[in-house]
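Appendix B, record 7
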Amino acid sequence: MEGFKRSSGKNKNYSFSRILRKESRSNDAFELMLSKLTLEELITLKLEIAARNVNGKLYGIPLWKAIPNITKDAMLRCAYTITNTHHEAAKFLGLNIKDFKQLIYKFKIGDHFIEEK
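Structure tokens (predicted):
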């Protein structure tokens, strides 16, 4: 369940799943359970667990304002890993290549992936 194979392009070796597995933060069983949750359920669960860990005191964290950036970061990472090139990733997100490159720089998306050969 590692992912799918792609033939060519700058992004072809990037896999967030592979990174998490190398860090022992993911495995087949976890990814199977995760795939059964909707995105909304996953976010709710993540926030509930975070709140539980601090006794419900998530005060002062501007969650409502942060959500658009959190979501954009996740979308950029996803596009980066499921496409072969920056052009394909930009097209996947409905962006032009200039805007896409500005966003990957802003969100430091390339820093999350280690190119493997």
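Remarks on this record: Helices lie at 16-22, 28-35, 39-53, 63-82, 86-93, 97-106. The radius of gyration is 16 Å.
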